[in-house]
Design goal:
By secondary structure, the chain is mainly β. Helices cover 0% and strands 41% of the residues. It has a 5-stranded mixed sheet, with no helix packed on it. Strands 1-3-4 form a 3-stranded antiparallel sheet, with no helix packed on it.
Length: 191
C-alpha cells in the first residue's frame, strides 16, 4: 500500500527462481531495494513495510500411454511399448514395465484366445525431482487374440476282411501348426 512521491523511482534487485514443482518464498528486505530521484537515494524518507512474495510452480500433466497393440492370432507374441505425452524439457521416462490382464508381462508368453489388456505397471520419471514435477496419468490398451487355425485329419486304413476286430487310432495335423510347447493327443473311435 502507499505510493511513491512523484519523481521517485523504486528498483527491486531481489529475485527468486525455481525449476521443480513446489512453492518458493520470495523474501524482500532493505538490501534488495533502492528508492531514488534526481537528487539520489531517498529511501530514508519512506516508512517501508516488506511483504513477502511466493513463486508457485504447479505440476505439469504427463500421460504415459500404452502404444496400440495390433490384434494377433494365438501363437503370435506381443511387444508392448509406450508413449510419453507432454514430457517437458530434457525430462525422460525409464524403467517401464507392463502387465497383461494384471499379470507381469513376459516376452515368452503366448496369450490365449479372447480379449486382453496391457497396462503400465512401473515407471521412473527422470525430472530432477523424483517424478514430483508431474501428475501422471496411465492409459492402457487392449488387444484380441484370435484362434489359430489347424486341420486335424484322422488316420485312415484299408484292410481286407479277416474275421477279427479292426482298430484305427490317431491323426495328424494336415494344415496349420501347433504353437511351440503345445502338444496334440488324438483319441477317437471307429464307428
Amino acid at each position: 500500500s502507499g505510493s511513491l512521491v512523484e519523481g521517485d523511482t523504486l528498483a527491486v534487485t531481489g529475485s527468486i527462481s525455481g525449476r521443480n514443482a513446489g512453492s518458493y518464498d520470495y523474501v524482500l528486505n532493505a538490501d534488495g531495494i533502492t528508492i531514488t530521484n534526481s537528487n539520489g537515494d531517498v529511501e530514508s524518507n519512506y516508512a517501508i513495510t516488506f511483504v513477502d512474495g511466493k513463486l508457485d510452480i504447479a505440476k505439469a500433466n504427463l500421460t504415459l500411454k500404452v502404444n496400440d497393440q495390433s490384434d494377433i492370432t494365438y501363437g503370435d507374441k506381443i511387444n508392448p511399448g509406450y508413449t510419453a505425452e507432454t514430457l517437458l524439457g530434457s525430462d525422460t521416462v525409464s524403467n517401464v514395465t507392463f502387465t497383461v490382464d494384471g499379470n507381469d508381462y513376459n516376452a515368452d508368453t503366448y496369450y490365449g484366445n479372447g480379449n486382453h489388456t496391457i497396462a503400465i505397471k512401473e515407471y521412473t520419471v527422470n525430472d530432477g525431482n523424483n517424478g514430483g514435477n508431474y501428475n501422471v496419468t496411465l492409459e492402457s490398451d487392449g488387444f484380441s487374440v484370435a484362434q489359430r487355425a489347424i486341420t486335424i485329419t484322422a488316420n485312415s486304413s484299408s484292410v481286407t476282411y479277416n474275421g477279427a476286430d479292426q482298430s484305427l487310432t490317431g491323426g495328424t495335423i494336415t494344415s496349420g501348426s501347433l504353437v511351440d510347447g503345445d502338444t496334440l493327443d488324438v483319441t477317437g473311435i471307429i464307428s
